[in-house]
């Protein structure tokens, strides 16, 4: 039985008492990593060797996978570092952190030497434990230039995607005074594996940070992001140094992630929920699950998230439907359906209705449409938000339509993970069986970072100053300039 998705909520994960040797070990690793510049395509080889050496020392099988990266100095190459611990049974848990930095002048202590250090500490803690599921520890490169490392790994290992039970991504975990655990509503079962602390901080929904975990979401793979509340003031600057970090917070993160991975990988519960269901002649999707589970629907390649049996009705035509149910141990039950819904002459949702009474807040105005064209999302994650004044007082129900697929009683802000392409979103306010409000919009969704990003490592005042001291042809760039260039590129892409 599928539970209704909760509203986005924030609770907190604060520093628990830690041992001094844990803090010292983390500080030592972060110090070593910040001594390397870790720029993809420029000088990240020594850092990759160091990470590989640590994982090999702990007894993990090592894989190093090279991929291309574009820089303003020409094509370059970088690599992911993978340490694998084989489990006794099926399934894989991924623990990952990116080791690259934003620019040659960024030490990257919090972003993201701290995440890599925690990952290595978790690997050390689990090195001698017998686990039922395999664990992959992955240090990604190219995160700062378009999540390239995680994209390459998931493309390269397409055969493993169905085997991944969960991914835990660590990004900026050692500044501020608490950690956040962020995931989508359909993956909130993973939060049950996080050990409890005096305060727990969970965010369900889309946060401000992007990161490698979103590549897993793009492939409908359960993933969480763990990050701190230290803000952006020092990230991507030369001031992101070890002296600014909260090492006990990072040690608490190590303890939490170790417990989380142990729970997910050592479980002896390997029985998946049984899922049964069908599509009615009118297109309504109905299903039943054998045990309490979090269930979500993927229709025609778009992940509609957790929706109840009978809540979704398909329009006329052929459709593919996947119903996925997760239990508390991450076991996954799957039901695949093919539906050919007959055309019964039902009116389209917008037939005869003029906009009004309910509105889509991010819909482009006519002026913006003429100026910029159709709304273009550069990621597949879209919040189905709406404004309907007096909705609760009047007993109005909001129905949503995504490409004609009807969601009865749409919750405001419900998140879908779209397949790439053109999409249409409509909302209808219904009171006493009558449509009393309507709005609609169309938009284009691409894959994340469809257009290759260029990493700017030249043409800066920092480079000119360094050239007098450093004979290398590729030299540091000011992080502020790089941030400006990338921000302009991002805003331009959003307005296409």
Automatic annotation (TrEMBL):
Q: Which InterPro entries is this protein grouped with?
A: M28_fam, Peptidase_M28
Record keywords: Membrane, Transmembrane, Transmembrane helix
Record's keyword annotation contains Transmembrane helix = yes
Q: Which SUPFAM superfamilies match?
A: Zn-dependent exopeptidases
Q: Name one Pfam family in it.
A: Peptidase_M28
Domain (Peptidase M28): residue spans on this chain: 80-258
**Keyword Transmembrane assigned:** yes
- Specify the protein name: M20/M25/M40 family metallo-hydrolase
Name the species this protein comes from. Methanoculleus palmolei
